[in-house]
Specification:
By secondary structure, the chain is of the alpha/beta class. It contains 26 helices and 16 strands. The strands form five sheets. It has a seven-stranded mixed sheet, with helices on both faces. Strands 8-7-10 form a three-stranded antiparallel sheet. A two-stranded antiparallel sheet has the order 2-3. β2 and β3 form a beta hairpin. The longest helix is centred in the middle third of the chain and has 40 residues, at 382-421.
């Protein structure tokens, strides 16, 4: 009898908790999560770990969806998968589609056409719920690290969530069916199965984060355990909470309040102390996840001194109500606002964005979200909902295709304009020649950036991957051979080595090779210095995972050994030493560490009989002298210039070359072609100097060819 009463009481407790579907404590968590994300995006320095708000959302989603599925299983011993997916579509798709389409059209109207490709591609990925995999791929693609953020970049978390929803009902149904089939305790088997899946996912997450940190942030398997943590609260938490209330009626509120304070404290701690250097998700994600679990598991009842009482206030509950729409709207506003305002965002601008995002969120909640959930295709069969969804996705993809076509036409027009201007004596760097009498060389841009065509990543028709004895890392071939002799005897064999900052000189070096009838071999790996010392950071962010280090060190050794073995007449080298941090274990300044490491390479090459020419790295853009800035200031590109003292920082590779002190090692310094005594420019001779945030444009480097040829001839005397 006692057992029956206890079971009945627990069942009643569960029924009472489910009467009000919207728990105020969960709405408060939603409000906290979305505001952490929004404030992190607006003020990343002040709230560096605000990205943990996404993890809070994942735990909430795992809890709510598992609770719903469990209820359906216990009521009917089955899950209506068609209805389940139809509900998810009606809940999420209308608002996400609206924001995605509005953002796409706004990008077409407001942003430079060079950004349209990435935005169109990512919008398609978002509507197909694979944006997280696209960003994971880009995170390990060095050539993509300079891309400006797209208007739908934040949809990655929605993609993770929808992929989770595809699998999770099947897992729970399978576990429940197995329990019925083998007459096992249903909740016990569900708890065990979910716990096992979550532990496996957590182990993978920790391993993958410490070996491939960048993609680990986005890939779904590394996030499953966060949903699983919420699911475990839904499956076993109610039972445990019911037992606690019955066994400790006088203390359970005090324990709940303590757990709530601790939970919110863990979330706040992670938001305030984590940053871009934190190995995340990994072990670190357990902090906000545990905090969220404590808040959910200890609710919904709270003592008067619990933070839940304060967070039940109407303004906070309002933010929780509109959290989904607020998450959708805030990011495209941040991306688009600088183009609308024609300036970087200030504090008042950011406050305005926050207010506008909340206003749009309220409107879309009332006019799109709620009607979509309650009225859209009401009573329709799941197949019809899926077909309508497919049609909506196809429509958005068609709009993206239209944007891609528009990009192609815009690029063709600008390329034609570029070709027409290329013979002008005042074109690009030629405008700096006093003999050409060009007036102000730093005036209005005559050609908009022509997108990927201006990037340094290209090869001449004379170039092809090395067929025999290539330089290889894993399955990637890292050696290219070019024959610029035109059928004549080669005057010399030369090498070009380095990273993408060596690659950016190709448009001038190729012309030099044609002029001198060279055979050229090139091997370049983005983000890797050509030294035998570990690279530990790139652009200030840790880059010390084992695979990245092995890739750089293996490549560097293979290149050095091949040059020593082949004894080419000349080696051209350049590297982004100002952005690639190395560590030889001495703790010395970077210039000293680079000095020794680079000298070791140069002396090996000169000892084999090669001459070394180092291209001094161009000035930094400081993420200011970019194509986007020029597009917003085409008539006054001086607004995109930088002070020389800040932009023209010491180049460790060039400094090391000077430090070698040998006549066979020379520096080709073109700094005066980018800067005068005070300023480094974003537009010279009507031509944009930079292709992105840290590479010179292909066209501007090509316009430098006469200067490069002159200084090369002087250096080899």
């Amino acid at each position: 009898m006692t057992g029956q009463v206890l079971f009945r009481t627990r069942s009643e407790l569960r029924r009472k908790e489910s009467v009000n579907a919207t728990r105020k404590d969960i709405q408060a968590l939603r409000a906290l999560a979305v505001m952490l994300v929004v404030l992190n995006h607006l003020w990343p320095v002040r709230l560096p770990g605000g990205y943990v708000g996404v993890d809070v959302f994942f735990v909430i989603s795992g809890y709510l969806i598992s609770k719903h599925l469990l209820g359906e299983l216990e009521r009917s011993d089955r899950i209506n998968l068609g209805q389940f997916y139809a509900r998810r579509i009606r809940r999420l798709l209308p608002a996400a589609t609206l924001v995605g389409v509005v953002s796409l059209l706004a990008a077409w109207a407001l942003l430079p056409f060079s950004r349209w490709v990435a935005i169109a591609q990512e919008t398609m990925a978002s509507v197909l719920y694979v944006e997280n995999w696209v960003l994971a791929a880009k995170s390990v693609d060095y050539s993509a690290h300079n891309e400006a953020a797209s208007t739908v970049q934040h949809y990655w978390s929605l993609s993770v969530e929808e992929q989770f929803y595809l699998v999770w009902p099947l897992l729970m149904l399978g576990l429940f069916t197995a329990a019925v089939r083998f007459r096992l305790r249903r909740r016990a088997l569900l708890t065990l199965g979910v716990a096992l899946a979550s532990v496996i996912a957590l182990v993978f997450c920790i391993w993958f984060t410490y070996t491939n940190k960048s993609p680990a942030y986005f890939v779904t398997p590394a996030r499953v355990w966060e949903f699983g943590a919420g699911a475990l609260v839904a499956i076993g938490g109610a039972h445990a909470l019911g037992s606690l209330r019955l066994r400790l009626p006088s203390y359970h509120l005090a324990l709940s309040g303590t757990a709530q304070w601790l939970g919110y404290g863990l979330i706040a701690f992670s938001a305030l102390t984590f940053n871009e250097h934190t190995f995340f998700p990994g072990f670190a994600a357990a902090v906000p996840v545990l905090g969220t679990v404590l808040v959910i598991a200890s609710g919904p009842n709270s003592p008067f001194w619990s933070p839940n009482r304060v967070l039940a206030a109407k303004p906070i509950q309002f933010v929780g109500d509109v959290s989904y729409s607020l998450y959708l709207w805030h990011w495209p506003l941040i991306v688009l606002a600088p183009a609308i305002l024609s300036r970087p965002l200030g504090t008042l601008d950011k406050l305005g964005i926050l207010a506008l995002a909340i206003g749009l969120s309220y409107a879309s909640k009332k006019l799109v979200e709620d009607p979509g959930r309650t009225k859209l295709l009401k009573g329709a069969r799941p197949l019809r909902v899926v077909l309508v969804t497919a049609a909506a996705m196809a429509t958005v993809c068609a709009l993206c295709g239209g944007l891609l076509l528009s990009f192609g036409k815009a690029q063709e027009a600008e390329t034609a304009k570029l070709q027409n201007l290329s013979g002008d004596p005042c074109y690009g760097a030629r405008s700096l020649d006093p003999g050409n009498d060009c007036g102000d060389p730093f005036g209005a841009a005559r050609v908009a950036n022509v997108g990927p065509n201006e990037a340094p990543r290209f090869d001449a028709p004379e170039c092809h991957p090395a067929a025999d004895d290539p330089i290889v890392f894993e399955d990637q071939k890292l050696l290219t051979e070019c024959d610029f002799t035109g059928g004549a005897p080669a005057s010399a064999t030369v090498w070009l080595i380095g990273d993408s900052h060596a690659e950016q000189w190709k448009s001038a070096l190729y012309e030099l090779a044609r002029l001198h009838k060279w055979k050229l071999k090139e091997s370049m790996v983005g983000g890797c210095p050509f030294v035998d010392v570990k690279r530990v950071a790139f652009m200030g962010e840790p880059a010390d995972d084992a695979r990245s280090q092995k890739r750089c060190l293996d490549w560097s050794k293979q290149v050095t050994d091949r040059i020593v073995q082949e004894k080419p007449g000349m080696v051209f080298a350049s590297s982004f030493g100002a952005g690639e941090t190395i560590d030889d274990g001495t703790g010395r300044p970077q210039l000293e560490q680079y000095g020794d490491a680079v000298a070791k390479r140069f002396l090996a090459w000169t000892g084999a009989g090669s001459r070394v020419f180092v291209f001094r790295d161009p000035p930094l853009t400081l993420r200011h002298s970019s194509p986007d800035c020029v597009a917003l200031n085409q008539q006054q590109p001086i607004n995109c210039a930088n002070p020389r003292a800040e932009a023209l920082v010491p180049d460790p590779i060039a400094s090391a070359a000077v430090g070698v002190g040998k006549p066979s090692v020379k520096v080709l310094d073109m700094s005066d072609q980018f800067c005068d005594d005070q300023t480094c420019y974003a537009v010279i001779g009507g031509l944009q100097v930079y292709a992105d945030f840290d590479h010179a444009s292909r066209s501007y480097i090509h316009s430098l060819m006469p200067v490069v040829a002159q200084r090369f001839n002087e250096a080899r005397q």
